[in-house]
Amino acid sequence: MELNGARILLECLKREGVDVLFGYPGGAVIDIYDELPRHDIRHVLVRHEQAAVHAADGLARASGKVGVCLVTSGPGATNTVTGIATAYADSIPMVVLTGQVPTPLIGNDAFQEVDIVGITRPCTKHNYLVKDVRDLARVLRQAFYLARSGRPGPVLVDLPKDVMQAKTEFVWPEDVKLRSYNPTYRPNLNQLRRAVEALLEAKRPLFFAGGGVVMSDASEELGWLARTLSIPVTSTLMGLGAFPGDDPLWLGMIGMHGTYAGNKAVNNADCIVAVGARFDDRVTGRLSAFASGARIIHIDIDPTSIRKNVRVDIPVVGDCRKALAGIREIATTRLAEKDWATAHEPWLAQVSAWRTEQPLTYVKNGSIKPQQVVETIFSITKGDAIVTTEVGQNQMWTAQFFTFRKPRTLLTSGGLGTMGYGFPAAIGAQFAFPDKLVIDMAGDGSIQMNIQELATAVCNKLPIKIVILNNGYLGMVRQWQELFYQRNYCSTCMEAQPDFVKLAEAYGAEGYRITDPGELESTLRTAFASPNTAVIDVRVEREENVYPMVPAGAALDEMLLV
Amino acid sequence: MRHVLSVLVENEPGVLSRVAGLFSGRGFNIESLNVAPTLEEGVSLMTITTSGEEQIIEQIVKQLRKLVTVIKVVDFIDVSAVEREMMIVKVQADDARRAEVLRIADIFRCKVVDVSLNDLTLEATGDHGKVQAILSLLARFGIKEIARTGTVAMRRSMQPESV
Ligand SMILES: Cc1ncc(C[n+]2csc(CCOP(=O)(O)OP(=O)(O)O)c2C)c(N)n1
Ligand SMILES: [Mg+2]
User: Fold this and answer.
1) Fewest CB atoms within 10 A around its CB: which of A107, A124, A250, B44?
2) Taking CA atoms, what residue in B is nearest to A303?
3) How far is B65 from B70, CA to CA, in rounded Å?
């Protein structure tokens, strides 16, 4: 039987295991919307297309599935760009479906026409314009395959209106073959042997986990290796949760706002095993000083990550989990060659001395400290929550003071640092895990970038909790102005802000305001216990700074401390 | 260091802009770029000349391989290859200088493809170095116009180690 493009699209989505679609309709996709009610796919109507992409992203990060969103042509499509770039920077599997003007009009500056394939070329893993309905099923199959395989990433498929209307025989392609795309999953055995050799020789080894550990579900292998070989662990922001934050071997995240112990360890280690990390400048500090005394073993599925920023002694291209499993296998046969615990004893003593010397801390006074809010939320939830963040100080305090113990429990825009990410991502996460507590740790600036999604959350009865660490500033920028620009607080004071409580209520959500430290815990508990969407406006110390801080361009161990 | 890269691509709409965008977006430098179909339908060969330090070239090659539409990348620095580039050059050549221009053309086995009272148009083929040499020898006569292809290259059948 011949089906039209819209029907084929939905049949394909079903077969790819899609049950939720975040989207926003318009003329170019109206045929798809016309078809939607006849399919067992839930469509979530957002209030801005950027949020549809972040929601798909949040669903993907929380669940490991491919997130999907659907928008119309022109402005609908351009509104997705920030979301796509966010997902691309953090390697999130996602398929973005955009409507396009009918093929005969393409190139004519038609109404609501933009070259979205051209616009998103540099921020997608790959993208397609489907010009013939007979290509549709194959392209969609490839899009999902590309999005989730190798180093994952967003794939955009542009769907002209006439292609959605045209009919053809629907054939679901059972497999996907792309001769020009063959990710390397299995690491080279020799490189793994060299890695084990290096670990045998090391006196001050260190694991350094990135988002790749989370993405490839390699936490268990990492944990086994760290504990069996007595090797301490640090991570990037994206790697938080990959190793339990309450393990004695855990040193905290490294980088610009990394822990003292973590940053010191990197620059004093003699062997670093970097797993699924790409050495972003926020992580390395001044490159010439980064890990200068260490042999670096770098495991990554993407060969371009290796030797892009940092010299590497033993490159291992492959899936992080497979690589760590391979190292485990080889190490198991050579365990007896070294008394690991004893050999690393002085090093472990050193790193734990750093940890006690300069733990993550803050000065308590009469006011509500943002760090204390994060700690309180951790203790109320016992860490059993999915936490998303916005960007800025709120993000860093959450990373520092919430103890993440499991992968996929922190969803944050690491690579792009997109303000406005956290709330829509929380919506996606809540759809993936309807019974979990999902909390967006927000800033008063960031939350206003996608605040309109309160309508989406309320009408879908999502019990998301938005905790605004309200300092009345674009705090992170203000911190830079304070420290490096002689307190020239130009355009960072955000005192003119809505009444967040009333705003929440106007949308039909619950609103809470906390100004008294004594009410912090009880009000948070009340809000968290509610079955409704809730906004909790916490008035925190306004000019609190995030420490430690490695100034831009400084070496990792040149930290400003509390 | 100058590198000649041979890049085999799926000939889809947009493939050229993917490759060109990669170079511009990452600040890599392109000296010349040549694209043409191959024997296999739907597959094109791009020959790209670029230059940079080792680590940059390594990134360029890896980034090219990462593009989903790129089938294969060969850096001709690693293999022995035949390299050619073609140039059409219009040189000032009045009666007094014509003989000298023709002599140079002859030495480099250029073809005369057009002639007028005041100039000669030559077609020159050779590797990059030879074409550069012709150009600099002709410069003193006054060059009115040039049109050059980028480099194209092919791996030699007999590689030094296999001889
Ligand atoms: C979309 C976007 N615009 C601008 C920035 C630059 N920026 C980074 S942090 C920050 C301040 C964020 O303020 P707020 O959300 O109140 O968080 P705080 O730092 O105060 O916790 C800004 C403007 C950004 N990261 N993203
Ligand atoms: Mg703020």
Assistant:
1) A107
2) B62
3) 6
